[in-house]
Amino acid sequence: MNRRKFIHLFSCSCLTLGMHSCTTAPITERKQLKLIPEHKLNSQAKAIYEQVKKKEKMSSDENSLNQIIEIGKKMEASISSYFSRENLLDPTLNFEWEYILIDNKKVRNAWCMPGGKIAVYTGMLEITKNINGLAAVMGHEIAHAVAKHSIERASRNVAVNVITQVTDALTGGKLSTVNRTTGINTIGLLTQMGIVNPFNRKQETEADYLGLIFASLSGYDIRETIHVWERMKEANKGKTPPEFLSTHPSPENRKKKIENWINEITLNYPPINNS
Based on CB atoms within 10 Å of each CB, which residue in 45, 116, 171, 190 is the most buried? Predict the structure, then answer.
């Protein structure tokens, strides 16, 4: 690479990273990198959510769906009330909340897209067992959206790609040569293990913490959260990768942290009366 091209690449990289928005996650005040506008990701999530509704089979279990909606509405109100009470900007201000129950008992999952687009799979109901267990899972997923984790991840990927290009340029393209020769994405693997995975585990831990807070503010018994993750661990027995290779904390670490948080959160974040 000639000197002029390298200087141009490096300058563009620095400019891109230098224009980022430094913010903090709600409540935890963890510093965040945000390069992607929220409205852009919310719009994309809304379009994808509509596709999911068309392609997936919706459950006919109205009782369970109504329970999901009831929990969601309580959390919507409690989250907004909490931030209003604390004179803080409501991170859900631009959310268009929506809830669906997907009929798939083989999938033990739930998720919340940017903008408050929530889905629960019927397979997850076998893990949650009761309303407090369902609130624990929904609180966790809603926490990802409230803390803008998707925006943060997308921004992180942009930053990592820029840094990777500069690093490859500094080494004269040697990293790219290794990738082509071995067929292994060395840069990607090292990045995933050294940067992205720990970063995602940090988000998962934060979602556990915030999820407990949102469930507690909404009047649910957060002690059930421990039993939910115990049942999830049992259901996934033998399928959990080592923590350093996983985007999630190990079940043991997760349970231990949740146990340590319960008393603090119950005391500091009692139910909010939204009536």
Answer: 116
